[in-house]
Design brief:
131 residues; mainly alpha; 6 helices; elongated
Length: 131
């Protein structure tokens, strides 16, 4: 998370609009909060971000992708993050073969549509990595 904050505040995402960042093994629930905080303070700090032509959250929503691992015990924060980011910015993360590995059925508790579930299980990875 600290590295992402650094990448955003130093203008890397703004200067490199085609750069895609896949952040793995930190879960999903934290990114909406981070976007909210960035966008809240952006109007007050615009002079410190000369490379930005839009709020920082726009860059995060456009260029950052998260994996599902680890899924939290309750589905609410993960589902809210998927709704916030869009399934096309989420990849299934199993963390196999570690002790806390997840299986695709772990997504069942999130109440996703079949389209969103397929996107998370394979579609996003296919698009990002051009598979």
């Amino acid at each position: 998370m600290a590295h992402l904050v650094s990448l955003v505040t130093s203008g890397v995402l703004a200067r490199h609009p085609n750069l895609k960042l896949v952040i793995n093994e930190v879960g999903l629930g934290w990114l909406p909060f981070l976007v909210e905080r960035f966008d809240h303070f952006y109007p007050y700090l615009r002079d410190e971000f000369p490379d930005f032509d839009r709020p920082p959250g726009d860059y995060l929503r456009r260029q950052v992708y998260l994996s599902t691992h680890p899924l939290p015990p309750g589905a609410a924060s993960a589902r809210a993050a998927i709704d916030f980011l869009g399934a096309d910015h989420v990849l299934f993360g199993s963390d196999y073969p570690h002790f806390d590995a997840a299986v695709p059925s772990a997504l069942d508790s999130l109440g996703l549509s079949d389209k969103a579930r397929t996107q998370i299980l394979s579609g996003t990875a296919r698009e990002i990595f051009r598979l």
